[in-house]
Amino acid sequence: MTFPALEDLEAEWLDRPVMDALGDSIEFQLAGGSFVEKKAFGEFAEALRDMSTGTVIDQDITLQVLIVDLPRRPISSDRVRVARVAGATYRPINVRRDQSGKHWEFELEKVGA
């Protein structure tokens, strides 16, 4: 009798259902492509930034997207829209794999379009 590998069960029974149920709605555009709806785990913190004119509060967004949902590693010419932040477009920066190795994890930097 052959049993499935634990990582296969996690992918089928945990990763996708949890992301679909609890993930934040985003739109991801590969460079030169069209925006496609995806799910991601988002962390929406605020960061204090010192400027010569004073301190400002800036949005600090980190996303985790399942690697199987993207055909390649995100690059800076890709674009991301986050449903929680209407009207803003971002680019991925500081792209890396998360600790589990199943997600791309990256911060977002606001862009003009």
What does it look like?
The chain has a single domain, classed as Thrombin, subunit H, CATH 2.40.10. It is 15% helix and 51% strand. The model has no long low-confidence stretch (mean pLDDT 85). The chain has a six-stranded antiparallel beta sheet. The protein has one helix and six strands, in the order H-E-E-E-E-E-E. 18% of the residues are buried.
Distance between the termini: 55 Å
Number of strands: 6
> Which CATH architecture would you pick?
Beta Barrel
Count of helical regions:
1
Q: Please tell me the overall pLDDT.
A: 85
Number of domains: 1
Instruction: Write down the secondary-structure element order.
Output: HEEEEEE
Remind me, CATH topology? Answer: Thrombin, subunit H
Spans of at least 5 consecutive residues with low confidence: none
Helix content range: 10-25%
Report the C-alpha radius of gyration, rounded: 16 Å
Question: Could you give a short account of the major beta sheet?
Answer: 6 strands, antiparallel
Shape: elongated
Beta fraction: over 45%
Give the secondary structure arrangement, pairings included:
Elements: H1 6-22, E1 24-29, E2 35-51, E3 54-66, E4 79-82, E5 89-97, E6 103-111
Antiparallel strand pairs: 1-2, 1-4, 2-3, 3-6, 5-6
Features:
51% strand; alpha+beta; elongated
A few lines on this structure:
By secondary structure, the chain is of the alpha+beta class.
